[in-house]
């Protein structure tokens, strides 16, 4: 007789009292543990982003000279920090909701007890994610323009057109994905048109990698001009500082594009100084 292992036992969930229907669900303790460990890790990730965005907001405002408080780049950056704080705050309650995160609801896909308020919260979160995505693309475009305008005229037009195309494509696909997700939430059915989700993820990663490459190319040119050694601090002007900081800091979100942690990518991007 095989040794009994309580961790390998199977739990049977009844979804109907009709014995003629074979609707019983089987789950194991390992499946349950894995699900809730994933939820705990996700909540910790979201909570860290709430804290980082919330703390960065007063730091950015207090350390910015008053004459720069109304610059477009700073306004977009502050708006992105606020939106990300709200977005993460709306995402966390999903995992503590007695309706969405209920054990039976998640394993049996029975959403009969999900209230209208829960639906509204999920829809608001999805819309907030779209707004954040748009703000990030605008912020990257503004930062890139500060560097692109220094390029020779033949290059400037091409880079501007390419940047607009990349950002517009990323925003357009994210808008389509937002509509599909909201429709899936309302209809309580899996999202169709998987290619839109895949395309949005791929194009979003491409846009981040593109701006990462743009900033780092400028940094590389700066290093080559200085024979691989940066000049003394007294010789650095404001534009050189922008090139160096953006080139180095954009390596962080650029490396995250290889993963599926899109919420983490958003936080990395808005925490990069403008």
- Which strand order do you get reading across the main beta sheet? 1-2
Which percent band covers the strand fraction?
A: under 5%
Over the alpha carbons, how many angstroms does the gyration radius reach? 24 Å
Regions with pLDDT < 50 over 5+ consecutive residues? Answer: 254-260
N→C terminal distance: 67 Å
Find the structural class using helix and strand composition: mainly alpha
What general form does the structure show? elongated
Helix content: over 70%
Compute the number of helices. Answer: 10
Report on the biggest sheet.
2 strands, antiparallel
Order of helices and strands: EEHHHHHHHHHH
Number of strands: 2
Q: Which whole number gives the mean pLDDT?
A: 77
Description:
The relative contact order is 0.09. About 3% of the residues have low confidence. Helix 1 runs antiparallel to helix 2. With 274 residues, the chain is an all-alpha fold. The chain contains 10 helices and 2 strands. The N and C termini lie far apart (67 Å). The chain is elongated.
Short description:
InterPro entries: GPCR_STE2, STE2_TM1-TM2_sf. The protein is mainly alpha-helical and 274 residues long.
Overview features:
single chain, 274 residues, mainly alpha, 10 helices, 2% strand, elongated
Topology:
Blueprint: E1 11-13, E2 25-27, H1 29-63, H2 72-91, H3 93-96, H4 103-108, H5 116-148, H6 153-187, H7 194-225, H8 238-249, H9 251-256, H10 262-271
Antiparallel strand pairs: 1-2
Helix pairs in contact: 1-2, 1-10, 2-5, 2-10, 5-6, 5-7, 6-7, 7-8
């Amino acid at each position: 007789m095989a040794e009994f292992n309580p961790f390998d036992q199977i739990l049977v969930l009844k979804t109907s009292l009709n014995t003629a229907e074979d609707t019983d669900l089987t789950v194991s303790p390992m499946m349950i543990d894995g699900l809730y460990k994933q939820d705990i890790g996700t909540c910790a990730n979201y909570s860290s982003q709430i804290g980082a965005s919330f703390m960065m907001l007063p730091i950015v405002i207090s350390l910015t000279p008053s004459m720069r408080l109304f610059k477009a780049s700073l306004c977009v950056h502050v708006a992105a920090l606020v939106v990300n704080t709200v977005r993460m705050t709306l995402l966390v309650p999903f995992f503590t909701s007695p309706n969405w995160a209920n054990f039976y609801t998640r394993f049996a896909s029975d959403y009969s007890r999900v209230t209208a308020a829960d639906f509204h919260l999920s829809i608001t979160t999805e819309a907030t994610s779209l707004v954040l995505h748009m703000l990030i693309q605008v912020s990257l475009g503004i930062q890139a323009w500060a560097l692109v305008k220094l390029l020779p005229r033949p290059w400037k037009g091409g880079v501007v057109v390419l940047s607009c195309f990349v950002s517009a494509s990323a925003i357009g696909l994210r808008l389509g994905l937002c509509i599909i997700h909201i429709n899936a939430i309302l209809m309580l059915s899996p999202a169709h048109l998987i290619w839109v989700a895949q395309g949005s993820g791929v194009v979003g990663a491409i846009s981040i990698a593109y701006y990462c490459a743009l900033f780092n190319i400028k940094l590389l040119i700066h290093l080559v001009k200085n024979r691989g050694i940066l000049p003394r601090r007294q010789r650095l002007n404001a534009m050189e500082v922008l090139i160096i900081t953006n080139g180095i800091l954009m390596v962080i979100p650029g490396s995250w594009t290889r993963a599926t942690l899109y919420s983490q990518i958003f936080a990395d991007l808005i925490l990069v100084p403008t």
